[in-house]
Amino acid sequence: MGALVPIHKGRKLVEEEIFTAAAEKVRVFGVELLDIRFKRINYNESVRPKIYDRMISERRQIAERFLSEGRGEAARIRGNRVRELDRIQSEAYRQVEEIRGQADAKAAGNLRERL
User: Fold this and answer.
1) Predicted TM-score (pTM) of this structure
2) Which of 54-89 are b and which e, b meaning 16 or more Cβ less than 10 Å from the residue's Cβ?
3) Tens digit of pLDDT for each residue in 25-66?
């Protein structure tokens, strides 16, 4: 038995290559191969820890991407909140000054009437 060649192709491409090779071999027996699927793939014991480490690393990268996107969205929401709060405070200050000006004008008018 020869050494196994590392696979860098992905499951679908490997299935297609095996299907093509097997279809040719069974044709001599009058059999037409229609499809193949891997039901289960077992890894060699010496390779399993590396595979699991890679799977864990990939999941961590995905989780970190979601966390990063979430942090960005949170920052956007906080920015909108601060902007809206500033707008509300500015509008409230404008209304306060307007009311204060009207009150001062009314008080000045009342004072003139008394004098």
Assistant:
1) 0.46
2) eeeeeeeeeeeeeeeeeeeeeeeeeeeeeeeeeeee
3) 999 999 999 998 888 777 788 888 888 898 999 999 999 999
